[in-house]
């Protein structure tokens, strides 16, 4: 096998097979089936993600992680985002195209804020956005190995960390 080196976030040595997760590519049409069908598709996906986030909040022992997910719930219910997505649905865009466009534009805008803490929320917005997009597109996350492993990802979002089983993850490499 190959050896990977990185800057440590905490001291220690981790040995195990690498479990590489790449950011999911979503394949979707720009044009919607019908406004009603696309609206239903979007609301169903948001509902699924909302339930998933609620479960993560209930399971999380960390107050900081719970607060991140409460913020994610608030992002799902943001009236400005909802209004912009609805506008695009009414212009016959697909639910996936409308959602992806609005979320990315909002994330870019958020990342440009002078306040560093607020700018960091762009990653949260993209995290929530990807989760809803995965639901709309029917893309499932890759199952983790049954043995302890080292997670290798380009970008690890808060929901990724919260889903990890500490007994199974020997290390994280980004």
Automatic annotation (TrEMBL):
Keyword Iron-sulfur attached: no
A single GO BP: phosphoenolpyruvate-dependent sugar phosphotransferase system
The organism's place on the tree of life at top rank: Bacteria
Entry keyword set: Pyruvate, Transferase
One Pfam family linked to the record: PEP-utilisers_N
InterPro entries: PEP-utilizing_PTS_enzyme, Phosphohistidine_dom_sf, PTS_EIN, PtsI_HPr-bd_sf
One example GO MF annotation: transferase activity, transferring phosphorus-containing groups
Residues annotated as domain Phosphotransferase system enzyme I N-terminal: 6-121
Family from the record: Belongs to the PEP-utilizing enzyme family.
Protein's name according to its UniProt entry: Multifunctional PTS system fructose-like transporter subunit IIA/phosphocarrier protein HPr/phosphoenolpyruvate-protein phosphotransferase
Organism in which the protein naturally occurs: Pseudomonas syringae pv. actinidiae ICMP 18807
Taxon lineage: Bacteria, Pseudomonadati, Pseudomonadota, Gammaproteobacteria, Pseudomonadales
């Amino acid at each position: 096998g190959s050896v990977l080196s990185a800057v440590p976030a905490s001291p220690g040595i981790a040995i195990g097979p690498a479990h590489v997760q790449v950011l999911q590519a979503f394949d979707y049409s720009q044009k919607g089936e019908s406004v009603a069908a696309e609206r239903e598709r979007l609301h169903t996906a948001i509902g699924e993600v909302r339930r998933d986030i609620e479960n993560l909040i209930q399971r999380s022992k960390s107050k900081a992680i719970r607060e991140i997910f409460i913020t994610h719930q608030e992002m799902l219910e943001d009236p400005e985002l909802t209004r912009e997505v609805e506008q695009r649905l009414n212009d016959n865009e697909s639910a996936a195209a409308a959602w992806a466009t609005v979320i990315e534009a909002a994330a870019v805008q958020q990342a440009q804020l002078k306040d560093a803490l607020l700018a960091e929320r762009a990653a949260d917005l993209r995290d929530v956005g990807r989760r809803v997009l995965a639901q709309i597109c029917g893309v499932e996350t890759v199952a983790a190995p049954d043995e302890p492993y080292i997670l290798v990802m380009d970008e690890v979002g808060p929901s990724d960390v919260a889903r990890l089983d500490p007994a199974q993850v020997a290390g994280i490499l980004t």
